[in-house]
Amino acid sequence: MSEQKLMKLVEQRLSAKRAHHVICVWEQALKMAARFGEDPKKTGTAALLHDITKEVPLDEQLKMLQKFGIINDNVILKSPSLYHAITGALYAERELGITDADILAAVRYHTTARAGMSRLEQIIYLADAVSADRTYKQVEKFRRLAMEDLDLCMLEMLKHSIRYLVKDECLLPADTLQAYNQYCEMDHQKGR
Ligand SMILES: [Fe+2]
Ligand SMILES: [Fe+2]
After folding, report:
1. Domain tally for the chain?
2. Ligand closest in space to the Cα of 29
3. Which of 34, 75, 101, 173 could be joined to 112 by an S-S link, Cβ 3.0–4.6 Å?
4. Distances 191 to 59, 119, 184 between C-alpha atoms, Å
5. Which CATH number goes with the domain that contains 147?
6. How far, in Å, is the centroid of ligand 1 from the Cα of 191?
7. Residue 42 structural domain
8. What is the pLDDT of residues 47-102, one digit of tens each?
9. How many Å lie between the centroid of ligand 1 and the Cα of residue 176?
10. At what angle do helices 150-167 and 119-130 cross, to 10 degrees?
């Protein structure tokens, strides 16, 4: 699918505010792709699609998850904010006919992360967190790190979001913990 068509789809399916966010993520992701040698076409597609089902009503998304038998994870089931990552990947695959597993995984894991992420998955996860429309306190630090060291930025971002989830007594998805453990071990091995 051409970038132009994807942009149109973003405009059709999302509010102006969220479409703006998606464009900011797209710009950030392309900068990171150029920096780390990732394919710009794949990166652009994943970035433009990452929130494509975010405004589909939650009950509809839940139906989609049940239809495809994905909802066997109690934590995901109880975390509606995570639905759109899974339904987004489903939409990309079933409705748009995208077959590239790396693009689908980048959409699928952009909210939780997971162990063994590809470079593209890391770029989309981090671009979503440090895009120009984000304004949280430490965003500048993360934005810098996102252009320097993907693994270290993943570790710092996971620490940041896990802290935040625990503070709010949110459930922690297993994928997030497994990602954290992996980047933590990697960091220990590097002896930082
Ligand atoms: Fe999202
Ligand atoms: Fe997003």
Report:
1. 1
2. 2
3. 173
4. 46, 22, 11
5. 1.10.3210.10
6. 33
7. 3-190
8. 999 999 999 999 999 998 888 777 777 888 889 999 999 999 999 999 999 999 99
9. 15
10. 50
